[in-house]
Amino acid sequence: MSVIPPSNPLRESQPHVAPSATDVLPPGTKIDELFERNMTEPYVLQRLSPRVWWVSVTNYTTVFLVGEESVLLFDAPLKRYDGVVSAVSAVTDKPISTIVYSHFHTDHLDDIDRYVQAAQDEGRTLRLVASEQTDAKLAAARSILPRPTQTVSWPNGSFDFEGSRVELHGFEWAAHTEDHAAWLLPSERVVHVPDLISPDQPPFWRFAANERFLFTRDNLDAVDKLEWDHLSGGHGNVGDHGDLAAEQEFIAELLAVCENEVSRNPLEAYVDPELGSHTAWFAKFLETTSAQAADKLREKYGHMYGFESSIRANAEAVTLHLVQYH
């Protein structure tokens, strides 16, 4: 496992630098003033390897690989088309030929029609790649998004992009959504795994709208075991292995606090006929437990970006986990 720097609070002591589209970012280094840059600049662009760049557009992040003839892009985050395309154009005039659907959630795919239309306008057909699991979920949900033109075997498979291997590492038991996976560029030592972690930040609301908190720590471990230097998390800063370890520490602390509160004041303690329904009892149980968790963790993490906005929702997700599983 990765070593957590002594100061943890999600590793704010790491070196932070201004973004560069030309200089490769040293592993373990973060982009400085990221929120302010996201709010004032059309995009934030950072080179991660000789052929891979990371781009952030108002808090949605992804990566793209520049090949010999064209560009491979992961995802098509909603309402970020102009910023992403401008960032790609800042480093190459090669067309975007391939887009990978990282997972089903449409906030990471909602601009795909614009990319498809742009390719058609240029007389090209866009290559859309997804896992078999994502393809199946798109169909099951009757999604209006364009279907993949190519699928990759689930849970482990790969495809070739202009001589570069792109690997799929699907989670056997996924936390975020059933088709959640890590997409690895082994030759570039870059992994793209949106919504697993937001480096440099406490976890987003309910662990990034995590559908099954039960498997979160296993998924973090699975990604940590892969070989890479830089992580793209879909949100937050550029990540590294130490961020996964710091997230594990945060989760362990939150679990311990919630377990203690549930032990002291279990759901049965909230039975109150005057509230009029058992739904009200449960709401009070979650509200009180999450408030206690926030109070316990505020001294260590309270100064961090987004803590107050996320801690109670994250504590509710953990509390639900505690009453649903043993």
Automatic annotation (TrEMBL):
<dbReference type="Pfam" id="PF00753">
    <property type="entry name" value="Lactamase_B"/>
</dbReference>
<dbReference type="InterPro" id="IPR001279">
    <property type="entry name" value="Metallo-B-lactamas"/>
</dbReference>
<keyword id="KW-0378">Hydrolase</keyword>
<feature type="domain" description="Metallo-beta-lactamase">
    <location>
        <begin position="59"/>
        <end position="235"/>
    </location>
</feature>
<dbReference type="InterPro" id="IPR050855">
    <property type="entry name" value="NDM-1-like"/>
</dbReference>
<dbReference type="GO" id="GO:0016787">
    <property type="term" value="F:hydrolase activity"/>
</dbReference>
<feature type="region of interest" description="Disordered">
    <location>
        <begin position="1"/>
        <end position="23"/>
    </location>
</feature>
<protein>
    <submittedName>
        <fullName>Glyoxylase-like metal-dependent hydrolase (Beta-lactamase superfamily II)</fullName>
    </submittedName>
</protein>
<dbReference type="InterPro" id="IPR036866">
    <property type="entry name" value="RibonucZ/Hydroxyglut_hydro"/>
</dbReference>
